[in-house]
Amino acid sequence: MSKKGKIELKNINKYYGKVKVLDDVNLEIKPNEFFAFLGPSGCGKTTTLRILAGLEELDKGKILFDDLDITNTSPGSRDIAMVFQSYALYPHMTVFENIAFPLKMDNKVAKNKISDLVKQSASKVKIEHLLDRKPGQLSGGQQQRVALARAVVRQPKIFLLDEPLSNLDAKLRLETRVELKNLQKSLNVTTVYVTHDQEEAMTLANRMAVFLEGKIMQVGTPTEIFNNPKTLQVASFIGNPPMNLLEGEIMNNQLTISGVKIKNYEIKKDNFKKIIVGIRPGELNISNEGIPAKIYLIEQLGDSTIMNLIINDKIVKLKSTENKNFKENSQVFVNINSDKIYLFDPETGLRI
Amino acid sequence: MNKKIRDYTLTTLATFIMLIWILPLIWSVFVSLKSEIEVLAYPPNIFFEPTLNNFKDAIFGSLSIVSELGDSFLIATITTIFTLLLSIPAAYALARLNLFGKKKLGFYVLATQMIPPMGLVIPYYLILGKFGWLDTYHGMIIVYMTFSLPFAIWLMVSFMEDIPREMEEAAFLDKASRMKTLLYIILPQVKGGIAVTTIFTFMNAWNEFLFAVQLSGNKVRPVTIAMYNFVSVEQTLWAKLCAAALIAMIPVILIGIIGNNHIIKGLTLGAVKGGGRK
Fold it and tell me: A25 and A162 share a domain?
């Protein structure tokens, strides 16, 4: 059987009581893609994943796996595996039994093959030595590996991960992230990964969807979304620290912020009395001329410095790798890298 | 120092209370080892020649309670089995499915426990009489189940609610049906609850006297009624009565010892909810 794993979501709507949690979600995920759902908590990304898994019914819309309508198919018949945020290991079973469970429930797997398959899957995530233990005797990281092993053992067509790293400590999270990426590459399975951590999404995913308030705001590769955000919300959500949003004005093809004209920047646009100008913290620098600002607070991060400046009574963050001796409360001027300016319509929030 | 005084006081108090509780039992043991004449001696003799004749009579004699033991065993066992068979799915449904009026149903289940049994004897007598089920095994079993089932459901619900939903969802995704999920994922995790339900149901059905004496007694004779074998207009055979009572106690004591750990877990369930069980 040829293994593909294309997912299509068509006009998915979901209500919890009267609250609309998913508003017309449309999405296509390609076979073997590592796809991330990114968004703050309560944005509908986990609900979408649960709908994909069949754990949540939808009020309107269609789900297609490889062009086959599976909207009303039971979770077990969808050929998917899922790793839950809480791992959901079966506490009364040993690690071996946990990993073997999906095989035992699957009538197509021959009984004498189970042991080999379990061991193979355990070795992929390096837990061969833990097979006789119970989940209660394992650390968080080990439990997470067991959950992964249980998910991959059946060689599903689609692999769903719901914030799998969020219960691990920072160091382990980075290590596991790399292993997860390698595992997905070696398995070559369509993977949907839910996270609120943009760094995770950016590093792991081939493509991602940004969810906000029950809607998909933008779909694209991590770099596309970072460099080319389509809306104000996406722009301000992606990037750490987030993008600065300043008020500006366009007059005679010339952009003005705080009464200062931005040099080397020409746009052929209608006049805008008020416009939102987005600038990433890394694209600002302190110079002898430009927009007047006051240094409010300096944060040292070791390899870089974040300066909190006050421009027009608003805090603006500037990220710099140089470590010059600036003093807090001193007056400076800020220059903008004119290639990296994003303009947004304040009314619609759309990129101009 | 204060702690020591407190400990001693508490131990003394506990011993005292325990003695009050255990005194009838000790008295029964002594009486059961005496001859009927010795029992009535006044003042009672502290030293006497112990005999096991009363136990022999209670088992093999003309007043044997063996058939009554059989009846009680049958009634208690079947009551327990049916209570488990019905309470487990019911509790699972109450704990998991979004049924209409679920909360009210839960309260109703608990409310049935609040009615004093005395008030139910006559209605039950009339109902069973109408059906022609007086003095039958199934009549007694159904009556006992009306008490055990609400308690069992209520107890099992609290055990099942402790299991995270994600555990089941994981099982569904692993291709397990709802039935298999209940069997392989839920039931092993509520073993404690099942043990407590079994013990309580069996013990209550075994020990029950009020309904047994009113609703059965001729063809169906639970062991609690058998105690009447030894009471007649002319005399009460105290020694044999005590021997029979002690024999009847054995299964309950055995179950108590075997299930002790589970009972403690069940009773402290509210206190450790979400923490203790793994």
Answer: yes
